[in-house]
């Protein structure tokens, strides 16, 4: 069996770090076994031994390790042999290294390091036959030799390594993310790019000969749901078969998904068509020196805001009983919501299934009125949650559809609530919305989540006002109170979506508590809930990838240095024992380095003409290959277009007696 094709690895050498990138060649040509992932290693030399830095494996049912077997030669027992530990991390195509794993220190410029990227596969069968022990794991490798280094003299990067390029959202209103992350500043082209989106339908046919039903043949919609990532709708159509005959049940999963395309506008070329990955994981390819990630934001709330009325409008109850002076009176209660201390949910994250599509969630303002008075049921002289209350201006409130529990049969009526709810996505045209709440204790009003301790028999439900959830719906306010109800007489059973598995039209859920500052409805205020706006086919993003430029000026040569300086017996850049090197760094692409002794004699001339490195090294030998004497040396760098740089260095060698003359 053959292993995967060797990864095509690109090496970017930067100041004190390197970036390795590779493409999906190994996946396209996986060899004879199932492709499983990539590993990145650091070695002592180009032939190893190797230290594993990171593994990126395919997400599948092999999520712990790839285990082969071997036979113990002493006992004859077959024992497991772990070939690679796995974590279902998902694949990636870029890896930044700034630490020397062998010495546990930062990478150093000019120092030579050895890395490799391997692609591995695994299989138990080949050509229909079992694979012998120790042949089930196959791996190919690409080795790179790296020298971290500062950029060449005069070279000005348009963007640095790991920098995210600036992107313009030229069409659409979503919170979608397009991040071009620079992996190779040298490779940036200066071109302009565009990411646009579209919708697609994927149909999967499935057959099941054992499906039994009690109805005659018909076609029906069995399931409609948006996936939790918010980037596709899944519609399952079922064909039901007469149970009296043994026939095949066929059904189709129809997935309407969002995909993205990626174009080079300058070259009028499409790099990517119909990529459905909007997860912002690491499974994205590298193009023209950058790693492109595209994401539709999660289907959840993005932000909230509480604003007191201006001028303040305080509840006299709060002022008299708690010396309240204004400020937020409500809190989230850590109930698991993504916003407001766990008290606010975008509806898919609370009930789980709603009839709204991901692009139908509005920005909502809930405008609360302050409490004006209440009925003191338990006679304790202060307001207790659950006691009947009145607000200051009922004309500035609305009614809500009330249920005691989660069924249409639990519908209680259309009752006043101390608020109004508004869609303010377009602030110039606010739209009043319907509200549903759960009146678990059936006291005829909406209350904050609370339980009396100890129970109070003088209060509704003994003071247990927990779980009085408030839903904000994305439908126009129906002042007649006939839109929702028990599902009869033309009303909508709020709980009846998808045969009771979901709720109709719900956008937001509030499950909130008393903050302990002023009490319930302590002031007039506005509570705002802002959703993530999911990515759609209306969204278009554009960006430029600025290419590096060169500044031809003699001052650019000032950074050129010889290291180590002084050179004393041996140095950190020596290629091997007995071979020595002094290296010059920050050199331009093309230059000549002439090295003289103090008598003005030319000792060595080094010609550099290499656009891939800013380094050139001297082996401390003369033009004739003889070791130099200890002393002070002058180096002169002549760089066409730049000018001249003159420097000096000290060299101390161990052996002053030459074997040859």
Number of strands: 49
The poorly predicted ranges are 203-255
How confident is the prediction overall: mean pLDDT? Answer: 90
Q: What structural category do the secondary elements indicate? A: mainly beta
- For the CA atoms, what is the radius of gyration? 35 Å
Q: Mind describing the biggest β-sheet? A: 10 strands, mixed
Distance between the termini: 58 Å
Overall geometry comes to elongated
Strand content: 35-45%
Number of domains: 4
Per DSSP, the total helix count is 2
Overall helicity: under 10%
How are the elements arranged and paired?
Blueprint: E1 9-14, E2 17-22, H1 25-28, E3 34-43, E4 50-57, E5 65-71, E6 78-85, E7 94-97, E8 99-100, E9 105-106, E10 113-122, E11 125-126, E12 129-130, E13 137-146, E14 155-156, E15 167-171, E16 177-182, E17 192-208, E18 218-226, E19 232-240, E20 249-264, E21 269-275, E22 286-287, E23 290-295, E24 301-308, H2 316-322, E25 330-331, E26 344-346, E27 364-368, E28 371-374, E29 389-391, E30 398-403, E31 411-417, E32 419-423, E33 431-438, E34 470-476, E35 484-485, E36 492-493, E37 506-510, E38 513-514, E39 525-531, E40 540-544, E41 549-550, E42 561-563, E43 567-568, E44 582-585, E45 590-597, E46 602-609, E47 616-618, E48 631-639, E49 643-652
Parallel strand pairs: 30-33, 35-36, 43-49
Antiparallel strand pairs: 1-2, 2-7, 3-4, 3-10, 5-6, 8-9, 10-13, 11-12, 14-41, 15-40, 16-23, 17-20, 17-40, 18-19, 19-20, 20-21, 22-23, 24-39, 25-38, 26-37, 27-32, 27-39, 28-29, 30-31, 32-33, 33-34, 34-37, 42-44, 44-47, 45-46, 45-48, 48-49
């Amino acid at each position: 069996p053959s292993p995967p094709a060797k990864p095509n690895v690109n090496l970017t050498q930067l100041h004190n770090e390197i970036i390795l990138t590779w493409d999906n060649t190994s996946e396209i040509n996986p060899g004879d076994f199932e492709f499983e992932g990539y590993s990145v290693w650091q070695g002592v030399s180009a032939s190893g031994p190797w230290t594993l830095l990171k593994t990126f494996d395919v997400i599948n049912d092999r999520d712990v390790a790839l285990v082969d077997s071997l036979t113990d030669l002493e006992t004859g027992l077959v024992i497991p042999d772990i070939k690679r530990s796995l974590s279902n991390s998902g694949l990636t195509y870029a890896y930044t290294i700034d630490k020397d794993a062998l010495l546990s220190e930062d990478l150093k410029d000019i120092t030579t390091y050895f890395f490799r990227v391997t692609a591995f596969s695994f299989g138990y069968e080949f050509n229909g036959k079992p694979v012998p022990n120790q042949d089930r794991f196959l791996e190919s490798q690409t080795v790179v030799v790296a020298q971290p280094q500062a950029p060449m003299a005069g070279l000005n990067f348009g963007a640095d390594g790991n920098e995210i390029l600036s992107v313009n959202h030229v069409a659409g209103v979503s919170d979608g993310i397009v991040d071009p992350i620079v992996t190779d500043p040298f490779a940036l082209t200066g071109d302009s790019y565009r990411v646009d989106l579209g919708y697609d339908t994927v149909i999967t046919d499935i057959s099941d000969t054992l499906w039994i039903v009690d109805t005659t043949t018909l076609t029906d919609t069995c399931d409609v749901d948006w996936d939790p990532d918010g980037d596709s709708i899944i519609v399952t159509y079922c064909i039901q078969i007469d149970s009296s005959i043994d026939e095949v049940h066929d059904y189709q999963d129809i997935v309407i998904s969002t995909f993205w395309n990626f174009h080079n506008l300058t070259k009028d070329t499409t790099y990517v068509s119909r990529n459905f990955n909007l997860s912002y994981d690491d499974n994205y390819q590298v193009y023209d020196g950058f790693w492109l990630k595209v994401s539709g934001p999660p289907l959840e709330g993005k932000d909230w805001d509480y604003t007191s009325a201006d001028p303040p409008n305080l509840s006299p109850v709060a002022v008299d009983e708690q010396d309240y002076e204004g400020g937020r009176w409500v809190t989230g209660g850590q109930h698991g919501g993504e916003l407001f201390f766990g008290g606010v949910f975008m509806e898919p994250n609370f009930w789980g299934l709603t009839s709204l599509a991901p692009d139908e969630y509005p920005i909502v303002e809930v405008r609360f009125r302050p409490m004006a008075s209440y009925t003191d049921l338990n006679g304790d002289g202060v307001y207790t949650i659950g006691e009947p209350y009145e607000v200051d201006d009922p004309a500035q409130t609305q009614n809500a559809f009330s249920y005691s529990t989660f069924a249409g049969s639990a519908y209680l009526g259309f009752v006043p609530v101390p608020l109004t709810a508004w869609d303010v996505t377009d602030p110039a045209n606010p739209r009043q919305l319907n509200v549903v709440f759960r009146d678990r204790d059936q006291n005829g009003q909406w209350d904050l989540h609370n339980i009396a301790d100890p129970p109070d028999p003088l209060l509704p439900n003994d003071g247990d006002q927990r779980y009085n959830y408030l839903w904000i719906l994305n439908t126009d306010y129906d002042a007649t109170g006939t839109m929702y109800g028990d599902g009869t007489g033309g009303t909508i059973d709020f709980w009846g979506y998808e045969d009771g598995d979901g709720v109709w039209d719900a956008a937001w859920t509030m499950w909130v508590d008393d903050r302990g500052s002023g009490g319930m409805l302590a002031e007039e205020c506005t509570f705002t809930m802002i959703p993530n706006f999911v990515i759609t086919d209306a969204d278009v993003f554009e960006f430029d990838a600025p290419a590096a430029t060169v500044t031809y000026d003699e001052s650019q040569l000032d950074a050129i240095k010889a290291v180590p300086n002084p050179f004393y017996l041996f140095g950190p850049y020596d290629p091997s024992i007995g071979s020595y090197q002094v290296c010059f760094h920050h050199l331009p692409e093309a230059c000549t380095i002439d090295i003289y002794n103090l008598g003005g004699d030319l000792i060595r001339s080094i010609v550099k003409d290499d656009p891939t490195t800013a380094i050139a090294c001297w082996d401390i030998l003369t033009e004739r290959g003889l070791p130099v004497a200890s002393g002070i040396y002058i180096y002169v760098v002549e760089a066409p277009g730049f000018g001249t740089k003159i420097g000096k260095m000290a060299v101390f060698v161990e052996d002053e007696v030459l074997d040859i003359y």
